Amino acid sequence: MAFSYIPIGVDIEKIVKFSEMKYIKDNLYHPGEKDEINNVQMNQSDLWFFICWTRKEALLKAIGKGLTIKTESFQVSCDPNKADLHHSPDPYNQWRILNTPPIDENYVSSLCIGGTLKTIKFRSVNI
Question: What are the boundaries of the signal sequence (predicted)?
Answer without folding.
Answer: none
